[in-house]
Amino acid sequence: MNDRSGSLPAKSSAGPSAPRRILWWLALLVVLGHWLLLAAIPREVHVGPAIEPPDLKTLVFNTRRIEVPAPVAQTVPVQPKPVLFQKPKRPSPSMVESEPVTPITAVAEVSAPASALPVEPPVVLGNDAENTATGSAAAENTPAELPVASEPAAPAQTPFNVPGSVRLKYRMTGLSSGLTYHATGTMTWRQDGSRYDATMVVSAFLLGSRSLESTGDITAYGLAPKRFADKGRSELAAHFQTDKGKISFSANTPEAPWKRGAQDRLSVFFQLASLLAGQPAGFPPGTKIPIYTVGPRDVDTWTFTVAGEEALDLPHGAVTAIKLTRDPRREFDQRVDAWFAPSLGYWPVRMKVTQHSGDYIDQQLSSSGPP
Fold first, then answer.
1. I need a surface site. Which of 72, 107, 115, 249 has the fewest CB within 10 A?
2. Strand 335-341 to strand 317-326: parallel, antiparallel, or no bridges (unpaired)?
3. Domain boundaries, position 227
């Protein structure tokens, strides 16, 4: 029993020493592991911010200063750059004397000397302020070496002798699309010395009728139409608005400028008769007479050339007449031939209108009488 009891204390003392040895070994392993880990880290690695702290002795405290621009004096205006606004040079005295400056508003009021006007045909219907200003500009642009002063002056007004009231009947022959037809025409002309009224009515079998009408005033420059109408199946009219300086059309075509001496396609023949009667010897063969002529839709300048006298055998009888021709200027213009008989008061005794296609209408005087 004593042996069994004596062995018990030795066994109990060996039992608690084993765990201590294990703990010591674990602690030794932990220390060894930390030592190996610290040995593996390089000594140059710095832990913390990459920027070294500044030296307080060299640190300088800087303050920011904002400069306010000095105020600009209000009494001193800012001058623009001379590149944008250049002061014009003062013209030399020689330039002022050779080229005088005329105000634009005074151009229409300045009248050129009669000797400085350009040479025009004997008949100049548009002798107004506009044409005077145009003549002044032409005279100023004329070289000094040209003998301008020796040229004859254009008359201020052309003599007119307006035919008296009359009714003229015509026998008409026409050609249309290769077919010949006949018609009758009646022209009625009335005038009281201050106003006129003219009508031309053409009637043809199976073709119906067509009429032209012109009304206006009689002035020192000849006839001054107020209204022109061309009536067939419908009526087209042109209005001469002299106060507004324009000509308007009922066909809604563009307006045209009005000019003094403007005529329409009916009054133009009595204007020519008035010119020839006013100056019987003033229109030799070759003379050109331009007339601003208004139609039912547009305006054109008809230039008539005096061809001379011709003997005509008309239904009214044999007569000698002065022939005037308006030659076409463009492809579709009409050719107009007109004959005026001095023995019959320069009435238009024959008129022929030829189209570009060859179609024509020829009207010859057959009888005359009071209107």
1. 72
2. antiparallel
3. 166-369
